C-alpha cells in the first residue's frame, strides 16, 4: 500500500503566472470584441481555459480585470526608441498599411476604442491614457507647450488609426505615396515646438 502511494504522481501544480496571463489575454480579446458592458466573466474564463472562480480569485471581479487588461494593453515606453529624424515617416508608412499587418496592435486599439465609448470605463481609461500615453509623448516632445502639443499629436495619431481601421486595407500606388508624404509632413509639424505661423 505504501509503495502504491509513493508511486502515485504528485498533483500537478498550477502555473499561477501562466493562468493569470491566459485570463488577461482572454479578457483583452473579449473586451475588445464586446466592450465592457457585454463581456461576461464566464466567457472570459472559457476562452482562457479556466474555471470562472479562478478569474475572481486572481482579479477580484470584472472591473478589476478590466483595469488590469487595460494596463496590459498599454505599452507606454514604446516611444523611447523613436528617432526624431525618421519617426514621422515611419508612422506615416505604418498608417498607409493594412490594420491586419499587426493584428495584436489593432486588437489593442479596438479594445481602447471600446473603453473610450463606454460611460462605465471611460474614466478608467482617462487615467491610464495620461499615465502611459500622454505623459510619455509630452516628455518625448519636450519644449514649450508640451502638454497641448502632446494632446494634438495623440489626437492626430488616433484619428489616423481610426481611418486605417475603417479603411481595412493598405493603400497602393500614387494614393499611398501622397498619403505618406502628407502624413509625414503633419507629424513633422506636430513635433516642432514653434507655434504655427510664427
Distance from first to last alpha carbon: 90 Å
Provide the gyration radius in Å. 22 Å
Average pLDDT rating: 83
Q: How helical, in percent, are the residues? A: over 70%
Structural class: mainly alpha
The major β-sheet equals: none
Low-confidence stretches: 8-13
- Percentage of β-strand residues: under 5%
Helix count equals 10
Overall morphology: globular
User: What is the string of SSEs from the N terminus onward?
Assistant: HHHHHHHHHH
Instruction: Give the beta-strand count.
Output: 0
Structure overview:
- This protein has about 200 residues and is an all-alpha fold.
- It has 2 domains: about 10-75, Homeodomain-like (Arc Repressor Mutant, subunit A, Orthogonal Bundle); about 80-190, no CATH class.
- It is about 70% helix and about 0% strand.
- It has helices at about 1-5, 15-40, 40-50, 50-60, 60-75, 85-95, 105-115, 120-140, 145-165, 175-190.
- Helix 2 (about 15-40) packs across helix 5 (about 60-75), helix 2 crosses helix 7 and helix 8 packs across helix 9.
- The longest helix has 23 residues, at about 15-40.
Brief summary of the model shown:
This protein folds into 2 domains: 9-73, Arc Repressor Mutant, subunit A (Orthogonal Bundle); 78-191, no CATH class. Helix 2 runs antiparallel to helix 3, helix 2 (16-38) crosses helix 5 (62-73) and helix 2 (16-38) crosses helix 7.
